[in-house]
Amino acid sequence: MFDNIAPWYDFLNHFLSLGIDVLWRKKAIRMLWASQPKLILDVATGTADLAIEATRQLAPEKVVGVDIAGEMLEIGREKIAKRQLSQIIQLQLADSENLPFPDNSFDAVTVAFGVRNFENLEKGLAEMQRVLKPKGKLVVLEFSKPTLFPFKQLFNFYFSTILPVIGRLTSKDRKAYSYLYESVQAFPDGKKFASLLESIGFQFITNHPLTLGISTVYFAEKKNS
What we know:
By secondary structure, this protein is of the alpha/beta class. 45% of the residues lie in helices and 23% in strands. The protein has a single domain (2-148, 187-222), classed as 3-Layer(aba) Sandwich (Rossmann fold). The protein is globular, with a radius of gyration of 17 Å.
């Protein structure tokens, strides 16, 4: 599905969110300012927007982006080359639930709009915890469910009715943007997700709702032992 929509993915992200997704990524990366990680893993990197933003804000030595959608990675590589960042950002095909890296490898792990797509959420989070160094930082940007009336009702109508129609007309994929709404509804956001992170071995977990709760940034640290 993600390979099918790859050519339209960036355009639709920006168009359907009115460009707010760019600001969300900026805020997510700002969570890492204090720790200044030198080696970063970007999981479910897609077309590498978050990896590029991390490089811009943090000036790391290396960012590795992984994804299972090869077509998305090809577009990401083009964007990276255009920005002359190929020496810093490396993209590779890999399964987020079976990361091909040793334990305790990265200073930080980031993921934007990817964890809700994991087939096994706990396994994917455990893999990210495994490859983080002790006290390494995790930043997760993900859609969440607004609760404020009437914004909640407007959001649900837009996501369930308007967005799938625009997505189908543009990307020609009948399932992709219906799946988006369904996956957001099924995702255990907020306190449930924070509790899951704690059970897997993270500490100092915080969640920061953005734009009236449309999305949330989760920040956590891997326990020292």
